[in-house]
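ok so i was messing around last nite and threw this chain in just to see what happens. nothing serious, just curious
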Amino acid sequence: MIKRSAGILLPIFSLPSPYGIGSMGKEARAFADFLKEAGQKWWQILPVGPSGGGNSPYTTLSTFAGNPYFIDLEALADDGLLTPDELEAAKVPVGDIDYAALYETRPALLRKAFSRITPETARAAREFRDKFPWVRDYTLYQALKERFGGKAWFDWPEKALRQHEHHALERWHRDLESEIAYHTWEQYCFFQQWDAFKKYVNELGIHIIGDLPIYVSLDSSDVWAERAQFQLDPEGHPTKVAGVPPDYFSEDGQLWGNPLYNWDAMKQDGFGWWIRRVEGASRLFDAIRIDHFRAMESYWAIPAGSKTAKNGQWVKGPGMDLLRVLTSWFHNVTYIAEDLGILTDAVHELRDTSGLPGMKVLEFAFSDASNAYLPHNYTNPNCVCYTGTHDNDTLMGWCASVKKHEKAYAEKYLGVKGKEAMRQAVLRAGQGSVAVLFVAQMQDYLGLGTEARTNVPGVADGNWRWRMLPGAATPQVADEIRTLTETYGRCAPRPVVKPEKKSKAKAEK
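result:
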């Protein structure tokens, strides 16, 4: 159960780092310290799996694996796996993430580190592989992709391999033993570092919110290893794919292209795949935001090969059959329903029946007085209020581009004029709402514009690149956030330091 509190959304990749992308290193711990000073109880991040097409954290090669680019290089150097010169050579100028450069240089550096591990570490990595069954499939999948020039699994030359047949898997396990060992160590290293990082964050009294993308990528170890769980033809191609119809993000809708689940097959085995998936996520996060929650009620099914998402249709989702399983199996996990998009009474009813808190996004709120996202319309505190999500512009960017009638109503509602005053007023409105949890993007507290936007839905290039500058999370910013958070009862007030009383003798002098 979430108590009245506040948090900040900042992806791991957006942390400052001299090595081109955020990691689980000292800057991550420094940001956790900042959150504590700012009176925040929650750190919301985005999925941390190995990204696939478009560098998106929502298009990963595995729903279970960790992104090796988040591995802290300085920790590897401390363990003697990288030299000071190698660490220095890995530094890049401050700025947004250059994925092309990162993909060119980082794998070679990690392979150098792997070449220096001790026999004890190699043995620990093998024990890690044996403990978590997904590791065996994922590491073979990665090794095979490299062997076949990066081709998707359904384009691999051997049919038995495409169909995940046991005899083919065993043969390739032998042939690619050294490559599999490398990818096994990579995952072992990621989770060792993550466990230490999460322990540090939790000991500060801060909880981590992570996203569970509703769908997984077609070209992933998940679909390759468990084809029966998805709507695929005999060759492994999807018969229908995921997306959403036209909405406020896109006139053509969004054609995601993910394979849809075979919900009948999943239900027959008690949703075992989902249980394993949430079990893995619960190791990473304290709370899980179920992405695209409305698909639990009904999902948009688009015929494979369609050019846009307009041609789809709504199909009934798993509903409480799945949600009842997930909430009953994992009593220690807090869930949040990302109930955005085109909603119906049935979606609201499913959310309320499940007891999951939904989301209120302030950047969507200022159409008119009846808008459900306006704070005065929050009839149930069991919700999470956001300035905007990773798919929204920053507050300053929104203030500069919001439609005229929405801007006029926002100024009237908030009683302010001007972008900076509007930014501060929206933050106050969210903090002061009855929502049990308020979350703002870090960019919104820093007053950054559209140049700091994380993602533009429907746009393929240029996303997931923004990084916070070193030193941006200052004590002054923490104090400003803390003051706002205290004012609206979302954290305990700081102790009042009383002036020291003078002794009688000192007073007489």
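not much to say yet. The chain has a mean pLDDT of 95.
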